[in-house]
Amino acid sequence: MASPLIQAGRWLFRFRSITPVPVLLGLAFLLWRSRADLGPFGPGGDLALDVLGLLSACLGEGVRLYVTGWVPEGTSGQNDRLEAAVLNTRGPYAHVRNPLYVGNFFICLGLALIAADGWAALLGLGFFAFEYFFIVRAEEDFLRGRFQAVFDAYCAQVPRWLPRLSAASEGKLREGRFDWRRALKKEHNPMAAWLLGAIALLTWEHVARGGALAPALLIAFTTGGLVVAGFLAVKGWKHGWLKRVT
Question: How many whole angstroms separate alpha carbon 227 and alpha carbon 169?
Fold first, then answer.
């Protein structure tokens, strides 16, 4: 029987799309209480945090797109159960064992920088560390049971979180070219989610500090509408909705 740590990790892995919801509600409350206080850095410092936050989130999404465009079928990915037809050890996995989660970290860090609230950042990044501590242990237990000594040798060469500069093994994850279609199909959900979150944070920040409401809402609805339109276009392409209509 698996240890409580592994069982907790399996549960969190299965429901990882739901577990952030109460945390998001807590973050919303903390941000509402803060009233978008500028803090000690003033408007210039806040603008710098916004820019750094967007860059960090884009970096994280870039990592996720790169990984999903190369990773072969038959791995857990965005499923609700652990699976692995092969052990990924090349490409981004030759630098770090959890490249998708590293991408998630940079997205979370980016949103925390945009929010510019210490307590909100502590809650958000703390939850990230808590959840993935258990999830990664459950995944490693699964992979160790499936690949045994091969996985142990891989762990000895490649760090869990901090990427190594030189690849531990050469070659691509799979044959062929980068599959941008697969990357978009896999990533349009999380990409739309964090983009809308960033738009909401920036809009709230502007209005809470006394900025004009109407222009802020116009910009928010325009940019948000473009994100939603892109999301629905990819969703329709993925599921063949347009073909059914025509």
Answer: 38
Q: List all residues 6 or more positions away from 19 whose beta carbon is below 8 Å from its beta carbon.
A: 12, 131
3-state secondary structure string across 105-157: HHHHHHHHHHHCCHHHHHHHHHHHHHHHHHHHHHHHHHHHHHHCHHHHHHHHH
- What pLDDT does residue 50 have? 93
Q: Residue 95 in contact with residue 163, Cβ under 8 Å?
A: yes
C-alpha 120/C-alpha 112 separation (Å) is: 7
CA gap 73, 174 in Å, rounded:
10
Q: Alpha-carbon dihedral of residues 84, 194, 26, 40, nearest 10 degrees?
A: 130
| 119 touches 30 (CB < 8 A) | yes
pLDDT in tens, 170-222: 888 777 788 999 999 999 999 999 999 999 999 988 888 888 989 999 999 99
* CA angle, residues 206, 46, 107, in degrees to nearest 5: 90
Task: Provide the percentage of residues in the chain whose pLDDT is more than 70.
Answer: 92
Residue with tokens 């900025």, as numbered in its chain: 211
Alpha-carbon span 57 to 193, nearest angstrom:
12
Domains belonging to the chain, first-starting first, are 4-179 (1.20.120)
78 neighbors 142 (Cβ within 8 angstroms): no
- Whether residue 76 is predicted with pLDDT greater than 60 in this model: the reply is no
pLDDT of residue 8: 93
What is the rounded CA–CA span in Å between residue 114 and residue 171? 37
